[in-house]
Amino acid sequence: MEILGMYPTWYDPTLGSGWVLGIIAVIHVLASHTSVGAALVFAWLATVAYQRKRPELLEYVRRYGVLLLVFSYVLGSITGPGIWFSATVASPRGISALIHSYVWVWATEWVFFVGEVVGIYALVYLANKVDQKTHLNLVRYFAIASWGTMLIIVGILSFMMWPGQQAWYTEGGTLNGFYGPYTFGQVITRTAFMLVCAAVVGGIIASRITDAAFRQEMTRKLALLGIVAAVAGYFGLQWTLTTLPEHAREVMAARLPDWFVPSLWAVLGVTVAYFALTWVAPRILTPWLSVGMAIAVMVFGIWPEETARESLRKPWVAGQYVYSNQVIGRDVPALGVKSELPLLQAEGMLAVHPFVPAGLREINDENKLEAGRTLATIFCTNCHTLGDTGMRPIKRYIAGMDEEALQAYIGGALTLGASPHMPTMPMTEAEVGAIAKFLTSPGTQSVAEVGALAKFQDSPGAH
Ligand code: HEC
After folding, report:
1. Can you give the pTM of this predicted structure?
2. Which pLDDT tens digit goes with each residue over 362-371?
3. Which of 4, 28, 192, 462 could be bridged to 233 by S-S, CB 3.0 to 4.6 A?
4. What letter does residue 446 receive in the DSSP assignment?
5. Are residues 431 and 414 in contact, defined by beta-carbon separation less than 8 angstroms?
6. Is 381 in the pocket of ligand 1 (CB under 6 A)?
């Protein structure tokens, strides 16, 4: 029989694999966004310093550069591979899809990144050692390399959400997938958001300037930048939202909680108020206030933004052809990729998944619960935890359904793909019965039980 190219499922019972990835990514986004934003700020300050002969501005740039080296570049370098590792185990076929189409684009991004790292070292350690014009060029080079990394990543992120042109499915072509109608809205929004991050983190350095007049000037410069960037980011986001495909808007309307839009306003309001306050009374700015604000940006800005972006492309994880649960749900003739749904419909997942324990290939009365657990792990845990903590705990969603009701729901809506935010998940009747039994059996979704499954799968002869 045909076996699908599926991988073992990595499942973290407490948080859910998506949240583990999300936590690593949020730290990474703060580090990387601050760095790119700061690079643009450096280019601006260095230009003013050069034209108006203001060496103290260059000293500010140098000190901020040192902070980036020990903060952004260390944290960024630790969390960057962390994203790769966690994404690869959480979503091996999603990563594979991206690599198949974009490995050279990623290589290009890496070249820009190397340029960025060389740039930050050069502008910090060559300050006051090379002539001013050369230093200015180094700072500008750093800005271009930094912004370039973002430009490339945004292209890949928007492909992940939706290939730029429909033609990509039939003709392929890197650029057909890379640039879409909403790529540039994202570029503007992200650039603005990066400047907000840079203005917040820049406060750590500004608040420690000893010369009172210069401290006030820098604090106000950052405040003004922060306000302009926050407002620009808000309009950029509104524009991006209007460019989203119909399906994403449906998912948004159905999924985003009522408080999402008011909370966007609240985040914008607090950010603008923070900068307005530091503009009016620059003396209140302390390193700790800046650090506190940076953490707030991470928790109230980056986490909701990244989660919303991730939610928008549900149920797909990449290119609208690989589902979050790793099943390929549509043909991509350009890549010779075929939908796996017909095979699943005919044979069921247990028969064609390479990592299903041998004893579970066929469901009987003895193994029904185990089979249900395996199916739930494969089909559902990329988006739901099976317990009651972490990411969309499935118990909460099925509360009130008994086995029969759940069986009807899974056998109907889920196998037919009637939900806009969940994949089409074809299963045999026996599989539907097993998964419904498992999900409604009291206590079976506990962490210890799931741990037992992992052991069972690892046992000799299991594969
Ligand atoms: C692609 C990710 C994804 C997968 C895979 C997935 N779900 Fe969901 N599921 C969601 C989202 C998103 C929601 C909506 C959550 C919300 O509104 O807060 C949801 C909601 C639900 C609901 C509530 C009813 C509804 O339609 O909103 C149930 C029940 C449910 N899921 C069961 C399952 C089961 C059982 C599986 C596995 C067989 C599964 N889900 C797999 C993403 C997924």
Report:
1. 0.89
2. 999 999 999 9
3. 192
4. S
5. no
6. no
